[in-house]
Design brief:
This protein is an alpha+beta fold. The chain has four helices and seven strands.
Length: 156
């Protein structure tokens, strides 16, 4: 009698597929594609492209402070930041360092990027700025897609 109850349970357990392991190389490629899109967004001065992989809330750390921003606030900030800007350089100085959790639900990427940009000032004058950015961006998988959730920035 006990066998009659246990046998179906054992058969179901035996034939259920294991949770498939995520393809971490595929996930790494997806994160690198986001990084490439960020570069393109800067050259095209396209805030919508920058927001394509943004979460509803974003945390950023810089200058010893933590900032919380909504998606709308991030859009406004990027729109102002890249308005009338021209990028002649936004290039990695080192290969991005990427780590992905074993279940591919969280990840982070450290980059070091040299940026050369000019931007028209209110006076009409073009102001050039050259700097090196190094930072870590953290990602979370939401509805099957990587989204940015937090960033720590440093500048040289």
């Amino acid at each position: 009698m006990l066998v009659a109850y246990l046998l179906p349970l054992l058969l179901i357990t035996f034939f259920l597929p294991d949770n498939p392991k995520p393809d971490l190389e595929k996930e790494r490629a997806a994160l690198l594609e986001i990084h490439r899109l960020d570069r393109r967004a800067h050259f095209e001065t396209n805030p919508e492209l920058l927001l394509r992989h943004s979460a509803d809330e974003f945390l950023s750390v810089s200058n010893g402070k933590i900032h919380r921003s909504t998606r709308a606030e991030v859009k406004e900030m990027f729109t102002i930041y890249i308005k009338d800007a021209k990028y002649s350089e936004w290039d990695d100085l080192e290969q991005p360092v990427i780590r992905i959790s074993n279940d591919a639900t969280t990840a982070w990427m450290i980059v070091r990027t040299r940026v050369r940009r000019s931007q028209k000032q209110e006076s009409g004058e073009e102001k050039e700025r050259i700097f090196v950015y190094a930072g870590i961006m953290t990602y979370e998988k939401q509805q099957g897609k990587w989204v940015r959730i937090a960033n720590v920035s440093t500048f040289e």
